[in-house]
Amino acid sequence: MKWKDQFRFVRQNMKKNKSRVYMTVLATAMGCAFLIVLSSVGFGLHKSIVKDITGERIVNEIEIQGKEQKEDELSQITDKDINYFESIKKVRSVVRRQNLQQQGLFQTGSFQVNTETVVTHIPSEVKAGFELSKGRLPGKKDEILVGYDFAANLAPKDVKETEVYDKNGLVKDEYRYNGKLIGQPVQLLVKQNVDGKEVTKEIKLTIVGIAKKPAKKWMTDRKAFISEEILSEIEDFTGTSRGMINEPSNPNPVELDPRSYDEVKVYSKSLEDVEGISNELKDNHYSTYSVVDELNQINIIFTIVKIGLIFIGTIAILIASIGIYNTMTMAVTERAPDIGIMKAIGANPKTIKKIFLLESSYIGFLGALIGTAAAYGISFAVNAGLPLVVQKAFKEQPPENLMFSYIPVSLPLICMIICYGVTILSGARPARRATQVHVLKAMRREL
Amino acid sequence: MITVSRLSHDFHVGKKGKETIIPVLRQVSFRVEKGEIVTIVGRSGSGKSTLLNLISGFIKQQAGEIKIDGIHVTDLTEAKFADFRINHIGFIFQSFQLIPSMTAFENIELPLTLKGVSETERRTRTLNILARVGLLDYKDHYPSELSGGQQQRVSIARALIVNPPIILADEPTGSLDSETEQDLLQFIKELNKELGITFLIITHDEKVADIGNRTIELQDGQIVQKEVFI
After folding, report:
1. Which site among B87, B113, B154 would you substitute to test the A interface, given the most A Cβ atoms closer than 10 Å to its Cβ?
2. DSSP element (H, E) containing A268
3. Residue A101 lies in a domain
4. What is the mean pLDDT of residues B60-81?
5. Per residue in A273-298, pLDDT tens?
6. Could you list the residue range(s) of the whole structural domain that residue A140 is in?
7. A98 and A148, same domain (yes or no)
8. Among candidates A155, A172, A178, which has minimal Cα distance to A106?
9. Residues A47, A26 share a domain
């Protein structure tokens, strides 16, 4: 018997008891919708967290914390290590930074800002994706780059701090620096304690470029990037590496290797390369950290959560399968005379079994289809309604990009497979019973 | 064509352990040749229906052998007998045994559908046979919308659709009035003559028994008379 005819036969049979089939399909649909919606919470939260992590950080970035030494100590990264990193296949760039070991005070006109001061290898930064919003890259030793929010943090020198900043710690609009920055001369003031007295050195610099706005709204970048030569000038003044201040309370400060780096980040060519590079670095005793490490842990936890939710959801489908079993058993009982006639005229028991299995799986398929459509609707409603509920209940905005429920294509597929398996199982016994229908008893003929 | 050799069958009645054995057929042997119409007659309980059920494969024999078209059908499994049946045997039942939810067309088409014949071929063959039995205008009627005679014609059409060499009929006129009965018997004779189909008919109706080339009489599960009519 051809599939098409079997299917036609099944549909014809199902029409004989529409209400019973409808209720069974409905029960299956509810089970499937429950499975999908329940599991979608796991998928949604997972996606939100991954999005949050990957959104905050550059995904192909591997942070090198140092090289592992004996007794859990880490040594700083030096040029030798940098050369090795650059030699690794699929490494796009190695960004290395040295931080000035004191807050640099930058002044321009009547405005000033205390900020993090950094020396970096500009070509590597550019290769890693560093971009300017205005100006150009520095070419001379006294030229500097500043962060996008540098200007917004410039505050008037002659006004009290309590007056200048608002409750969020931002410079009030009326005190903001409104002048241009590019080409603006600035003075960098660095200090050192000499014989118990604070001595200050003023270095004249010019801003030539402003970095691109940070990707996230809540991020601020007010750093200043100075050249290596300026750092050497500062070191000559302070007599310490990276301009460290001699604190009277700490007469023996840690001496930093002048050729070591405080912050080293390796950038791979693509996200897929991160794990390989990260593993190679770990094998060579470098302490590393990347988004992939964090994602791996999160993925493990959420995979367990998702499996758990799918398992709980499957129970709902199993309950629905009792309905399918009942419907199919009733169908076999009711159709016994028809089965008997079919067997009498030469229907193979296998064909009869296939017809009943097809019917139960068709009920399961319809249920899964309707359940999936309903689940998408519920998921949409939950995502749309949840922020309103959170806002009403807690008087707070829910986290940005929070997706409470997410249904990836794989989820309805998993549901379909589970549903199909369960319906086949629940239809198997009635189908076997159908093949065992006795021709003569079914046709009510005398033996 | 059909060879029945030393066929015996008992019914076990009652609870297990305390069951009573009722012999239904005892050492029954006969042959039906190709193109013959053979009628089996006998009183109720003589074992004629059991004999037909055994030949049809609806029940499994306990002793003896049945050979149809040279094949030992008694050795076939249920599935293989089903395949054999659909290709070799057509059935006509007393109560027609049509599927009530199917139209006359669908009932007749059913054996071809089960065989996996293409839709186009099925349609052509079903319409031809409907025309042959004079029910073309009733093709979309459900069994409940047909008279007894018409239902029996649908039943015959369903038996003929696969061109079987043998048709087994169990009291084919049992549910028909005498006029329809005559029409049907005439039709059986025509089919036998034109298509050479072998008929094995079970009946207790003398008129039906008269159309056979031979009549086998059963009594208490044994053949008591083999009569030849030419």
Report:
1. B113
2. strand A263-268
3. yes
4. 89
5. 888 898 899 899 899 988 888 888 88
6. 61-269
7. yes
8. A155
9. yes
Position A349 pLDDT exceeds 80: yes
B171 vs A: CB within 8 A: no
Most confident of A16-30, A60-74, A155-169: A16-30
**CA A214 to chain CA mean position, Å:** 18
Closest CA to A352 of A334, A327, A335, A330: A335
Cβ neighbours of A350 in B, within 8 Å:
79
- Counting the structural domains of chain A, the total is 2
What element of type H or E holds A13?
helix A3-16
CB pairs under 8 A between A and B: 79
**Pair (A394, A312) in one structural domain:** yes
Q: How much is the pLDDT for B16?
A: 78
Residue from the list B49, B79, B101 with its beta carbon closest to the beta carbon of A349: B79
Cβ(A440)–Cβ(A337) below 8 Å? no
Q: How far is the C-alpha of A352 from the C-alpha of A45, rounded, in Å?
A: 46
The full set of domains in chain B, from first to last, is 32-64+75-228 (3.40.50.300)
Q: What angle do CA B138, B96, B173 make, to 5 degrees?
A: 105
For residue A169, the SS3 value is coil
Q: What is the tens place of the pLDDT at every residue in B128-176? A: 999 988 899 999 999 999 998 899 889 989 998 998 999 999 888 877 7
Q: Are residues A240 and A308 in the same domain?
A: no
Residue A287 in any domain: the answer is: no
A389 CB contacts (<8 Å, ≥6 apart)? none
Q: Are residues A242 and A365 in the same domain?
A: no
A342 and A209 within one domain:
no
Q: Which residue did the predictor score with more confidence, A401 or B60?
A: B60
- The pLDDT tens digits for A222-274 are 999 999 899 999 988 988 888 888 877 766 666 666 678 999 999 998 878 88
Considering only CB atoms, B91 lies closest to which of A5, A345, A349, namely A345
Cβ atoms within 10 A of the Cβ of B6, count? Answer: 12
Q: What is the mean pLDDT of residues A374-402?
A: 85
Asked, for residue A285, whether it belongs to a domain, the answer is no
Q: Are residues A222 and A338 in the same domain?
A: no
Mean pLDDT (chain A) is 88
User: Buried b vs exposed e over A292-329: b needs ≥16 C-beta within 10 Å?
Assistant: bbebeeeeeebeebbeebbeebbebbeebbebbbebbb
Q: How far is A351 from chain B (nearest CA, A)?
A: 8
Q: Is the dihedral of CA B127, B133, B137, B142 positive or negative?
A: negative
What six digits make up the tokens of B83?
């395949």
CB contacts, 8 Å: A439 with chain B: 58
User: B216-220: long-range contacts (C-beta < 8 A, 24 or more apart)?
Assistant: B216/B30, B216/B38, B216/B39, B216/B40, B216/B41, B217/B40, B217/B41, B217/B42, B218/B28, B218/B40, B218/B41, B218/B42, B218/B46, B218/B47, B218/B48, B218/B51, B219/B42, B219/B43, B219/B46, B220/B26, B220/B46, B220/B47
Tell me: do A85 and A200 sit in the same domain.
yes
Contacting residues for A203 by C-beta, under 8 A, at least 6 apart: A142, A187, A188, A189, A190, A230, A233, A234
